[in-house]
Write a structure and sequence with these properties.
The chain is mainly β. Helices cover 2% and strands 48% of the residues.
Length: 262
């Protein structure tokens, strides 16, 4: 039975001699089959299985911005390595068939040169969620030629619940960009939080230096950036939607600034 450990992290108490994955077998059926990365599959009924759809958009500075639209699933970076709990976990990215990393949220950037992208959903214990013996995943084609200006239809995902229907649009010419420098020291933010006026289509670089490990988050755009202590981190985005958007840190919960896009 799964229980909450320190800090709310999901853990599982199990008998000596059984693996952590075997102990969490109550969350679906642990199969002997593995994916190409050596991760065992965890079978769940189709009706309640998680699903993922991949939306792609060329980035004005090269590569692709990827949005993962998930159903019956949420990203739980705080409990990775714990028990397998239905509807929770993270995603692994495979670019051109090779695993390139994990994703703990809905947004990611894929560098230029990639041809195909597969997104596979995993449980917190690193098993891969599966339906009918196949991983829950979605695969899309990434076009870097002139045809990328036109909407494209991705091939069907290899898992029944993970049909990929990406939308590809041509990058628009961004207005001249600007850079905003922010420093976080304890509970102090410099310059003090204020509103930054931007025009739709303008490119913004947020350059943040924090005295502790944290995560920068731009609400509304769902863009995140890990911050290392004392090391400036840069997040670049083109503000392509209007409204008021807050920029804050996850762990310390500090408001850094507000973006007003008109």
């Amino acid at each position: 039975m799964a229980a909450a450990g320190c800090g709310g992290r999901a853990t599982t108490h199990h008998k000596p001699g059984t693996s952590h994955q075997e102990a969490t077998a109550g969350s679906g059926t642990l199969l002997a089959a593995k994916d190409e990365g050596g991760h065992r599959l965890r079978e769940v009924p189709p009706g309640g299985a998680p699903a993922v759809r991949v939306e792609t958009r060329p980035d004005s500075e090269g590569g692709w911005n990827i949005h993962l639209a998930v159903e019956r699933f949420r990203f739980t970076p705080e409990s990775v390595g714990g028990a397998a709990i239905p509807g929770r976990g993270y995603a692994r990215l495979l670019v051109d068939g090779k695993e390139t990393g994990r994703v703990y949220g809905p947004w990611h950037h894929v560098p230029p040169g990639a041809r195909t992208l597969t997104v596979r959903l995993h449980a917190d214990d690193h098993t891969a969620w599966a339906v009918a013996g196949r991983p829950v995943e979605a695969t899309v084609a990434l076009s870097t030629g002139p045809s990328s200006a036109q909407p494209s239809t991705a091939p069907t995902a290899t898992a029944p619940p993970g049909t990929a229907t990406p939308t590809a649009t041509a990058p628009t010419s961004a207005a001249p960009g600007r850079t905003v420098e922010i420093t976080v020291d304890g509970s102090s933010v410099q310059p003090p939080p204020s509103r930054i006026e931007l025009k739709k289509g303008e490119r913004l670089t947020l350059r943040v230096t924090s005295d502790r490990a944290d995560t920068l988050h731009v609400h509304g755009y769902d863009r995140e950036l890990p911050l290392a202590p004392g090391t400036p981190g840069s997040l670049i985005l083109t503000v392509d939607r209007t409204g008021l958007f807050e920029v804050e840190t996850h762990d310390s919960g500090l408001l850094l600034t507000q973006l007003v896009v008109r």
